[in-house]
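Why run this: before we spend reagent on co-expression, it is cheaper to look at a predicted model of the complex and decide which construct boundaries make sense. The entries below are exactly what would go into the expression plan.
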Amino acid sequence: MIPLDRYPKEIALRDGARLVFRPMVREDADRLAEFFRMIPPEDKMYLRENVDRLETIEKWAEALDYDAVFPILAFAEERIVGDATLHRNRAGWKQRVGKVRILVSPEFRHRGLGTAMIRELRHLGEKASLRYLMAEVLEEQQIAIRAFEKLGFERMVVYRNFVNDQKGRLHNLVVLAYPMTLSRDELS
Amino acid sequence: MPISRTNCPTCAAELACHFAKAVEGAEEKAVCPYDGLAYRDLRAGHDQIYFGGWRKMDASPGDILRAYNQIERHLRTIGRALGDKDLPAARRDLAMALDALQSGDPREESRDALRFMDHALSYAHRVIDDLLHEMGLPPHSPMDFAEWFNAAEVPFREEW
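The model came back. Tokens follow.
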């Protein structure tokens, strides 16, 4: 069970910027659409859905289900500047594996927000009793990969020429996994 | 203020290296760069080891053993700070730090002692950063304090 009582959570970045983390609610749809408008087209190529369509985001907002997808938004005042999601399966062989996805607006990149969001998702994963967190990152995104590794994610596999962008170019996909806390017995 | 050669009265660091700095416009006096910061004892403890002589090419076996003991004390201090806080990821990292430390005992002629000690310190850093994150604070950056430690090499910094 993911605890909601830690939100809203204030976060300070190293440069002094102050942000607030909190879960997405239905009323955030417009602000989230505005956030995606700030994301450069080349970054949107790697997203799974067409976020330029307001209907896509409205559909997410309508169907919010924290047990399936837990979206944490980073706010700079009223503006969304980061979006981190923890995806879970309710049943099946991957029910103890959470997938994490993080997107940061260009003006907040390289300021430690991505790292803070990984840290937050790691905490949520622990509270959700997951066994592993997984992240998929294009090999070109080396800074993101290093940020994940710095927080304990391990590079599991690199799929060569595995994914394509919207222009059809192929890219290597790096899969990283973070093993969650061991049980008391395992720790002893 | 009398200068202790063993422990800083502010951050509890074991050495007095950061006392050497003079305050601008004043006579040289005791200054602690960690004064006013959250978890200053953990930050200072980390940085003393991070910038310690054991990582230099000409480190003596004595330097390495001393660093090993410092890391052990540092992890105990972190454990006390962690207490019963609900931070499972930090608890896991602390367990891994202790594990790495155990594997890197320089008295047992482990060829990888330095590497394990380095890992232990990295895990310790992660625990400190988790504690800071819970307070809504940015991670601890040792390089912000490098000038107090006479650090010769400054690695590049990157953030995501």
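The mean pLDDT of chain B is 84. Residues 61-82 of chain B form the longest helix (22 residues). Bring this page to Monday's planning discussion.
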